[in-house]
Structure prediction request, 284 residues.
Amino acid sequence: MAAYYSIISAQIRPEIQEKVSIGFLLIGEGKVFFNFSKNKLSAVKGLIPDSSFKLLRDSLRNIESTVLIENTKEQSQLLITESLKKNSFSIEHINYLSRYNNNILSLSGPKKIDLLPTEEIFFKLFKKFIDDSETVTPEIKYNNIESFKAENKVQLRKHFNIDREFTVNEIPNLIAPVRVDLLGRNEIPVYVQAVDLDRIVYHIENDLAQLAFLKLAFEELNQNAKGFVLTREPDKKEQKQHDIWKQLRSNKQFEYIDLSEPEKVLQYAEAHNVIPLIIDPGEL
Prediction:
């Protein structure tokens, strides 16, 4: 069974095409493997502006999320077949990306190998082409809320509305529409909101404002809602973001859950018989 691989490089000086191979994709029938070198990412940080590094890091995380989403699709066993050419990791799309340079990441054109795509093969190729000094795993689970929601969609839908915008029509006294990652109820409303502390402070403040709007609306309804904040510790060098993280951990208004342990959300929902706040006919 043939497989294809693509080497992902970080652009150091785009004007002279200087780059560092940093990530590796292995694409097979029904499976995509991906990882990037943490060692090389750390080294690249000192070679490019902070703004470019943040974009690079976010781009790699987006690839991680997309890999997990593709691997959890019900039809993923047809990954590289004719019927799924529009898949994010189809050969056609990788070829397109290899010709498109965003000045942060570049992908090599897909190269065919006559090997069965397995974790063992992925490990060997990663060490050969990217970094032989690093212990790798083919997928980084739960690098963000999207990864968690993608892998646990079926279970989550039993307990929550997912990625839904709520207005005053659904939740009286809301000051403004709020998009919530997860929202359900038992005797009280139960909500989960992810906060990405790696972003600039302005965007973090907007996320926290939405949390405040939601909590205030439930208080106006005399409902003692249960709220979870899902996030992880940011770089300590980002002083403002790190201060916000410490405040969230000690805040008694919400229960803090580290992004490495999002399964606690499902455990709570199952133990307390949480159901979606709004039952849509199509979801019955």
Remarks:
- The chain has two domains: 3-129, 145-283.
